[in-house]
């Protein structure tokens, strides 16, 4: 039986579901996309099964996890990963009934069938409201969370949904990715014990906030940033701040000449390119790499050396 056939069989009775669960069949990864028409990807490698929850007749698509989809498109794909770019070599789509299950129930059901150690989800805040209790009741322990909010002026409902998602799911997450165009506080996310935090937004990042964060890796792509502020951050690192930070990468337009970045750091040049080494108060060394070959666009990387 194919993976989609096993899932279909599990719907026939409670006994069938228990039997399928008892097999402990392995699943490489589960990706969930919470948008107007939610999608659930089950990656078995090289087979992937995509569940697209259709919201036909529902104006605006999904607005809560309690809604019941009109039906479900199930697509079985064979993926070729042997080349540089993954390629779909075979794809077949079936239409299933909604099984009288809500969106949240579909997520819980599919995540309960197989043995999987990696769950991740992406949330689109546009027109969708996520309450705290339904989030906690629906999602497994997510390893990776991504949240998108493209409104320059997010509504109170958007901000509340953002806070609910982070409060409900952040305790188990290792990696968080944020795309925020509006002014939404992320201080509580930076203070979580994350392996990586990635943020894309057009505002000037506040490196003073970074001093209180507890992430190992921080990556940001922004419109512009200040070398002077980043220099102050590196100076505080040399005095012992941010001991957990191992990697920092910033892309954007710099507001000053790049030499401002190294002022007072006692940096040692490495090689011919713009690579420098600095050291903190306990002898830990870090490498600073600067790439500004494209006009005023600059990439700065900070890497703690082993």
From TrEMBL:
Query: Which part of the chain is the Sdz-33 F-box domain?
Result: 186-250
Q: Which InterPro entries match?
A: F-box_Sdz-33 (IPR012885), Zygotic_Embryogenesis-Asso (IPR053222)
Alphabetical list of Pfam families matching this protein: FBA_2
Q: Which domain of life is it from?
A: Eukaryota
> PANTHER family, per this entry?
CYCLIN-RELATED F-BOX FAMILY, F-BOX ASSOCIATED DOMAIN-CONTAINING PROTEIN-RELATED
Name of this chain's protein: Sdz-33 F-box domain-containing protein
Q: Which organism is it from?
A: Caenorhabditis nigoni
Lineage of the source organism?
Eukaryota, Metazoa, Ecdysozoa, Nematoda, Chromadorea
Supply the gene name: Cnig_chr_III.g11266
């Amino acid at each position: 039986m194919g993976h989609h056939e096993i899932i279909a069989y599990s719907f026939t009775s409670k006994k069938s579901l228990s039997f399928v669960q008892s097999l402990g069949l392995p699943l490489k990864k589960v990706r969930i996309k919470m948008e107007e028409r939610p999608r659930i990807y089950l990656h078995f490698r090289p087979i992937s099964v995509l569940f697209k929850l259709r919201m036909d007749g529902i104006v605006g698509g999904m607005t809560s996890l309690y809604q019941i989809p009109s039906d479900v498109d199930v697509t079985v794909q064979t993926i070729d990963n042997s080349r540089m770019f993954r390629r779909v070599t075979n794809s077949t789509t079936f239409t299933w009934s909604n099984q009288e299950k809500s969106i949240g129930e579909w997520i819980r059901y599919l995540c309960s069938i197989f043995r999987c150690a990696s769950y991740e989800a992406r949330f689109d805040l546009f027109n969708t409201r996520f309450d705290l209790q339904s989030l906690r009741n629906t999602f497994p322990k997510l390893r990776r969370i991504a949240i998108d909010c493209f409104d320059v002026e997010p509504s109170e409902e958007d901000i509340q949904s953002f806070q609910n998602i982070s409060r409900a799911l952040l305790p188990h997450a290792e990696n968080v990715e944020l795309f925020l165009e509006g002014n939404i506080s992320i201080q509580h996310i930076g203070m979580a014990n994350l392996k990586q935090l990635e943020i894309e937004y057009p505002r000037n990042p506040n490196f003073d906030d970074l001093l209180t964060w507890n992430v190992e890796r921080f990556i940001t792509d922004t419109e512009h940033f200040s070398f002077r502020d980043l220099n102050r951050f590196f100076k505080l690192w040399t005095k012992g701040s941010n001991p957990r930070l191992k990697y920092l990468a910033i892309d954007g337009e710099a507001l000053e000449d790049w030499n401002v970045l190294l002022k007072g750091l006692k940096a040692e040049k490495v090689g011919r390119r713009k690579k420098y080494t600095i050291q903190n108060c306990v002898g830990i060394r870090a490498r600073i790499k600067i790439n500004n070959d494209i006009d005023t666009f600059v990439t700065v990387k900070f890497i703690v050396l082993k």
